[in-house]
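Board notes, transcribed. Complex of a protein with HDE.
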Amino acid sequence: MAKSTKRSNAGVNIHDQKLVRGEGGELHQIAGDGDEVLTTAQGGPVSDDQNSLKVGARGPTLIEDFHFREKIFHFDHERIPERVVHARGYAAHGFFENYKSLAKYTRADLFQRAGERTPAFVRFSTVAGSKGSFDLARDVRGFAVKIYTQEGNWDLVGNNIPVFFIQDAIKFPDLVHAVKEEPDSAFPQAQSAHDNFWDFISLTPESMHMVMWQMSDRTIPRSFRFMEGFGVHTFRFVNEKGESTFVKFHWKPKLGLQSVMWNEAVKINGADPDFHRRDLWTAIQTGNYPEWELQVQLFEQDFADKFDFDVLDPTKIIPEEILPPVPIGRLVLDRMPDNFFAETEQVAFMTQNVPPGIDFSNDPLLQGRNFSYLDTQLKRLGSPNFTHIPINAPKCPFAHFQQDGHMAMRNPVGRVNYQPNSFGVGPRETAARGFTSFPENEAGEKRRLRSESFADHYSQARQFYISQTEVEQQHLAAALTFELSKVKTPVIRERMVAHLLNIDDALAHKVADKLGLREMPEPADAAVPTRQDLDPSPALSIIAKGPKRFEGRKLGILVSDGVDAKLLAALKAAIAKEGGTCEIVAPKVTGAEADDETIVEADEMIDGGPSVLFDAVALLPGEAGLADLLAESTARDFVADAFAHCKFIAYVEAATPLFVKAGVADSLDEGVVALKAKKDIATFVAMLGDLRLWAREPAVKMP
Ligand code: HDE
């Protein structure tokens, strides 16, 4: 599938700039002439872009230098405000393909015809960190999808977690203030592990279900390609007859779910803060287009009424075992934006962008969001004409009488700018085709109330916890302990343990014990007691539904001079057959000389390519270059980390001293495979689908 990447160094002229002496002997720095003339933004040709206009060679700069002034003015204004949440993001273009007509449920145009493709743009993000923060923060991931339908843009602005921290939008500013860096010190960046966040959470019992997800490995995904997405709220499908069906949207990654380990995340952030960006960029540029299936849970009011929780409460899910999601289409991302700012930064997602046939429910979080997203675009993009920016413009015919304003790009002509008018000019509304709200009967007192049906804060938190494998339960407890260990106010830690007692007794004790709490607190007051009878939902575990294949994953191969060329080629071929990729790590960036005297080019020098960047590793040093690796502490870390992160490791005999150096020589287990004969490659590759040898974890972690 490999395609050449968009970028190439072809045509790069390394001698472009030079210093030359003028006729009078004076020095000029000049750039090489090209066919295209550099101009000002007003179109004036520029004679010299290397020197500002001065009085003499060493005199002051002149204010009349309009080229300099314009250039600096524009530069000074290059930034727009970053998003107040989800500032760090990365996006790609693609399409949604509908499987078959959903006319029975919805009149939405994109769902009417089998096989029809509709263009889409998807932005993934972290929530808390600023635009320049690192990719592997422990954080919820945004999964925002814009589909350019023939009846207007549909934005499904979701997350990689199906529930949320709060039940009412009015609490959103408090939640976000609490999780972001503390306002006096301005740290920690992109981390929830601090007092303010846990203070707010421990005083907000409705957040407990979400906290279980947040402390699970879901918040340290291996890449965007390996995460699920969720619309979170209950929406409505409305068909041609005006009948409504409730719907919850789920995106399922074709390559399966995968996360990294916390210790790995911490190290990846240092080694490659753009780990997730790079992954998406590389996958798409090499033709390995990531894909998700859109699945829906469809239900009626009487089905919803059977639950003792409320389907309007965004802190609840409907377990997939109770209502299996139905596949309705697929999303493929196949093109990176040409310009990050123009598209990824300026894209404006809005929950209120729905085509006819998709409607809102009364979820109070969704209702609040529908207000917020329009507001935020004006702040960030600076003009009500943000829909004139190509990435935000509909791709279907559109016509309205909105006019003027900052940076208006589409200006109507002619006399008539209103309707109705007597001249038969311009668009008119259409009762038949236009968006109509589902006419739900609404009545009640005007009050500030939280519905009684929103009161159970612990049952689904418990259900999530008991649905995890033992390994995942350990990770969850470790994450809670880590986060709370960064909290300096003891009462906040205790208050959290008091909530955990309502979720799972063993979990609460484990965390209390790891934190070193001397006394157990009383369980937190619960408005509704935790249900103990909810069945585990295996669909909530990442490991239980692991992909069982290495497709889309990466093997890091450590080589040095003398590497066995035939073995290397066989290993690379076996990985390619699985749909995986390989990267070569060597002591020098130019690579290593193999035993057959060919040069094996390196992708990374050893200190730039730690094993945390790979899903599995192979140690193929040659005897000739082994000393180089043994002298290098990063080579020791490569091996020690791969082992500690429960990765599968293949090795050749010559690599044995590296295990000694890494301090793991006495602990080698069945996940460490010696490549002695050809069949050993097959044995190793067959293991890789498990992604990790979790059985090793107890040997490398404090109990
Ligand atoms: Fe957002 N959210 N949000 N949010 N949200 C924004 O809009 C807001 C919520 C989500 O890649 C902002 O354009 C409120 C839930 C994503 O550009 C802002 C509430 C979910 C993105 C905003 C929520 C999300 C945003 C900031 C509580 C998952 C990034 C910049 C009621 C279902 C979209 C912007 C992108 C962005 C408001 C809660 C997902 C301020 C008031 C729940 C993926 O409008």
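The chain has 19 helices and 20 strands. The radius of gyration is 29 Å.
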